[in-house]
Amino acid sequence: MEARSAMSWYCGSLLAVVVVLFLSASLGTGAGAGADLKGSCAATPHPDVCVSALQKDSDAKAAATPRDLAEAAIRAASAAGSAAGDYARREMDAVKDNGMWQCLNECAEDIEEALSHLDDSDGEIDDGKMKDVKLFLDTAEQDVWDCDQSCRGAADTPVKTALLAKNKEFEKLMSVSLALIKRSTGAGAGDAAGPAAAASKPKHKSKTKP
Question: According to the UniProt entry, which residue ranges have a biased composition of type Low complexity (predicted)?
Answer without folding.
Answer: 190-199
